[in-house]
Specification:
single chain, 341 residues, 7-stranded mixed β-sheet, 3-stranded antiparallel β-sheet, binds zinc ion
């Protein structure tokens, strides 16, 4: 068969080929052991001498061309079959929804309750000077909380007075005087935020923790306003059957100072290991703002009075969710976190 005839025939056959199998059959039909082109090459020796060279050359060239074309077609077919057509009716891929960390959820819940009775959220720096963290709040120079065993001080090499020393705030109360330097009474603020203390970490202590402080200043603010507000908060969080009680205490920035307890939410006041069998849980230090602190705020203590309170957010959150280890909140363990979606 003439080389040109074989070439034309191959082109026709190629147009009809649709699948990989068809293309493989073409390869066998033209280049296989008994293929059309193989046949020509085998019989070259039988041709007249003058024709052998030219026929050999063109047969070999066609062989290379057929191989190349078939390989190209097979590759093209393979890449087409990899591209799946888009089916717009197929259900989409569902990505897992994230959710707020239980601590954030609890902070927001607490903020909502205080906002419902007129408090606004205030902030203060986590790195502050000792004046706002201690001095302005009437915390004496020899108070144990100032000790470097409890407070993280930041040494910057400057020779400065104690009240200007930088530290990581030990409570969010550092916002109180800062805020009042810019505002006039009446004010009602809550300050949620991170605090730092040099505590040994165990099931109920972390070196970094959250606190929520509150401050209310106005004319004629009394202890009963304080107790009523905190009672409202406790009942809003833990349910209306929770009781509160006030015990006298001492804090340098309040006078009188109070420890507010709530009835144990775990044993309902009957007594259990968590409440040390007393039926009560100590949750909120509070009191009426000391006149010296009011003066530091630029507020006239003969005209205005006010109260302040603060609580550890983790402690209340643990009671709220029934969590027994504060460290769970900081381990990023999904087995724990996914229970709060
Ligand atoms: Zn109890």
């Amino acid at each position: 068969m003439e080389i040109e005839v074989i070439k034309k025939q191959f082109k026709k056959d190629l147009e009809k080929a649709e699948s990989k199998k068809d293309l493989e059959n073409l390869r066998v039909g033209y280049l296989g052991r008994k293929g059309k082109l193989t046949d020509v090459l085998k019989n070259i020796s039988k041709l007249p001498v003058e024709k052998r060279k030219a026929t050999g050359q063109s047969a070999n060239a066609l062989k290379l061309e057929i191989e190349k074309v078939l390989n190209q077609e097979i590759n093209e077919l393979a890449s087409k079959s990899r591209k799946k057509p888009i089916d717009i009716s197929e259900p989409g891929v569902k990505y897992p929804d994230g959710h707020m960390h239980p601590l954030t959820q609890f902070i927001r819940k607490s903020i909502d309750i205080f906002q419902s009775v007129g408090f606004q959220v205030a902030e203060a720096p986590e790195v502050d000077i000792a004046y706002y963290n201690f001095d302005s709040l009437n915390v004496p120079k020899d108070h144990p909380a100032r000790d470097s065993f409890d407070t993280f001080y930041i040494e910057d090499g400057r020779d400065i007075s104690d009240d200007k020393k930088l530290l990581l705030r030990t409570h969010t109360t550092n916002a109180d005087v800062r805020f009042m330097e810019k505002r006039k009474p009446p004010v009602r603020i809550i300050i949620p935020g991170k605090c730092y203390r040099h505590d040994t970490i165990d099931a109920s202590h972390e070196a970094t923790f959250y606190q929520m402080d509150g401050l209310c200043i106005g004319e004629g603010i009394r202890v009963t306003d304080l107790l009523g507000t905190l009672r409202y908060f406790a009942k809003s969080i833990f349910g209306s059957d929770v009781d509160t009680r006030a015990r006298p205490h001492f804090y340098p920035f309040t006078e009188p100072s109070i420890d507010l307890d709530i009835s144990c939410v775990l044993c309902k006041g009957k007594g259990c290991p968590v409440c040390k069998h007393s039926g009560w849980l100590e949750v909120m230090p509070c009191g009426m703002i000391h006149p010296k602190v009011l003066k530091n705020m630029g507020v006239d203590p003969t005209k205005y009075s006010g109260y302040a309170f603060g609580f550890g957010i983790e402690r209340l959150m643990m009671l709220y969710y029934g969590i027994n280890d504060i460290r769970l909140g900081y381990t990023s363990d999904l087995r724990f976190l996914e229970q709060f979606s």
